[in-house]
């Protein structure tokens, strides 16, 4: 997932200039063109209006309200645990009206967290790069040692 560079809080929609908000839509549209599978991924999460929200110009207060707190961001996730090897995701917010929101609400009512496993597309998008390969980890560990040990490690590689 890619987050927009700016967004609108719910309260801002009451005083936002539609022309200025449309600049954010155009920026999001440009950004998501670089990620052509995004619309399909969002649809799989139940956010089926993603492409129409990106393509429809914002000309009035209703258009601003459609994008408030949700433009290209159907959900918010955090790591399910502090273990860096655990790439599962805990859903903390889901856009109302989506399948994900219904699932999230059901879990809340049951007093449980909604955890997406590491192989779920949402977890992969959010935390797929969380585990580094062994070579990078070894290099980072060497750099955390004393400056002398780090210098030796660098010398071995040259």
SSE inventory with pairings:
Elements: H1 18-33, H2 38-44, H3 50-55, H4 61-67, E1 75-79, E2 89-94, H5 99-109, E3 114-116, H6 121-127, H7 134-144, H8 147-157
Antiparallel strand pairs: 1-2, 2-3
Helix pairs in contact: 1-4, 7-8
Mean pLDDT: 74
**Low-confidence residue ranges:** 130-134
Q: Based on helices, strands and strand pairing, what is the structural class?
A: mainly alpha
The helix count comes to 8
Distance between the termini: 37 Å
Number of domains: 3
Number of strands: 3
Helix content: 40-55%
In terms of DSSP E residues, the strand content is 5-15%
Question: What is the H-and-E element order?
Answer: HHHHEEHEHHH
Query: Main beta sheet: strand number and arrangement?
Result: 3 strands, antiparallel
Strand order of the largest sheet: 1-2-3
Q: What characteristic shape results from the CA principal axes?
A: extended
Write down the Rg: 20 Å
Structural commentary:
- Helices cover 48% and strands 9% of the residues.
- It has 158 residues and is mostly helical.
- The chain folds into three domains: 1-73, no CATH class; 74-127, no CATH class; 132-158, no CATH class.
- The protein has helices spanning 18-33, 38-44, 50-55, 61-67, 99-109, 121-127, 134-144, 147-157, and strands at residues 75-79, 89-94, 114-116.
- The model is unreliable at 130-134 (pLDDT under 50).
